[in-house]
Amino acid sequence: MIFVKKELSEKERQELAEALKNANDVKRYRRLKIIELSGEGYSVPKLAKLFGLSNVTIRDYIHRYNAGGLDALRYGKSPGRPRLLTFLDSQWDIILHRSPLQFEKLKTNSRHWTLSLLARFQVVTRLM
Q1: pTM listed for this prediction
Q2: Mean pLDDT of all residues in 48-67
């Protein structure tokens, strides 16, 4: 069985209680509560059932707390999927304000951008 460190010091308990009281985010509060209850002897399966999370998630929170304390329970913004378009937004603004007709490499007579023209533009400019 995995639990939070066997004995939390009085200082650690106070820090945890203070963090719980000041938590202004549901996710943060839930993570802190899981740590608190684990310190009281609740098992991983019991916590998973109580909070509707997987055992793996509960174990992850406990491992993170044991390794780095309260700061390790903070979550950051996920970087998300890698960009498919290689140009920066500001570069796209400049490109889109011009007609596709102005780009000789596209070899088009169209005055309006279409998705296929944008895709072709990106491929053509990568080859340059």
Answers
A1: 0.58
A2: 92
